[in-house]
Amino acid sequence: MDPRSVARFVEDAEHQAMAHRLYTLVFPMDEQNDRVLLGMKKRGFGRDKLNGFGGKVEANETITKGAERELTEESGLVTKSIKQCGLLLFYFEKDPVAMEVHVFLVDRYEGAAVETDEMRPQWFGIRDMPFERMWADDSHWWPYVLRGQKFVGQFWFKADQVTFTQHTLRAVDSLDFA
Ligand SMILES: COc1nc(N)nc2c1ncn2[C@H]1C[C@H](O)[C@@H](COP(=O)(O)OP(=O)(O)OP(=O)(O)O)O1
User: Fold this and answer.
1) If both were cysteines, with which of 70, 80, 100, 122 could 20 make a disulfide (CB 3.0 to 4.6 Å apart)?
2) pLDDT (tens digit per residue) in 14-53
3) How far apart are the C-alpha atoms of 120 and 21, rounded to whole Å?
4) Class for domain 13-172, per CATH?
5) Which intervals hold domain Nudix hydrolase (predicted)?
C-alpha cells in the first residue's frame, strides 16, 4: 500500500472515491510555558483566521519535509524536532477534492518567530485557545493534543466554508506517514 495512503484510517466508500490534495498544519509548542504559536493568516484560504502554519505538500518532498518548509516560510522558525499528532480530512460541499491535512507538533526549533507575508505570529496558552477566531473544527480535536493522543478526524463543511454539518473523530495509536 502507498505509504501516503489514508485508506487504513478512513474506510468509507465516498471518501475512497474522492481525489485528495495534501496539506500540512504545524503547531510550534513552548512546553515550558504551556504555550502554542498561532499565526493570523493574512491572505488566501483561511484569511483572517488564527491557525497553525502550513500549506500544500509539493510533489518532490515528503509530508514531513513539507511541514518543516512551510513552518520556516511562514514563521521563520527552523524545526529541530517534529512529530505528527493528527490527520484531518475536510470535505467541502460541491468540491470534488478532499483536503487531507497532516497535523504536526514542533517542540524544538531554532530562531524567533517573525511576521511574514502570509502569517502574523502570536503565542497563546494551550488551555486558553482563541477558538472563536479559528476554524470551527479546531475546538473539537485540540483536546486530543492536550491529552497527548494522536487523532484522525473527518469534517464535512458547508459551501460557506464556515460551518460543518457532521464529523467523526477518534484516537489512533500511530500515524506513520513519510
Ligand atoms: C477546514 O478547516 C480547517 N481547519 C484548520 N485548522 N486548518 C485548515 C482547514 N482548512 C485548511 N486548513 C489549513 C491547512 C493548511 O495549513 C492551510 C491552507 O494552506 P494554503 O492554502 O495556505 O496553502 P499554501 O501552500 O501556503 O498556499 P499558497 O499557494 O497561498 O502559498 O490551512
Assistant:
1) 100
2) 777 789 999 999 999 999 999 999 999 999 999 999 999 9
3) 25
4) alpha beta
5) 19-150
Ligand 1 centre distance from Cα of residue 51 (Å): 9
Q: What's the ipTM?
A: 0.97
Spell out the long-range contacts of 67-74 with Cβ–Cβ below 8 A and sequence spacing 24 or more.
67/24, 67/25, 67/26, 67/102, 67/104, 68/26, 70/24, 70/26, 71/26, 71/28, 71/106, 71/109, 73/116, 73/118, 74/39, 74/116, 74/118, 74/119
User: Ligand 1 pocket test: which of 26, 135, 154 has the largest number of ligand atoms within 8 Å of its C-beta?
Assistant: 135
Cell numbers given for 147 = 491529552
What is the tens place of the pLDDT at every residue in 62-74? 999 999 999 999 9
The answer to whether 28 and 37 are in contact (CB under 8 A) is yes
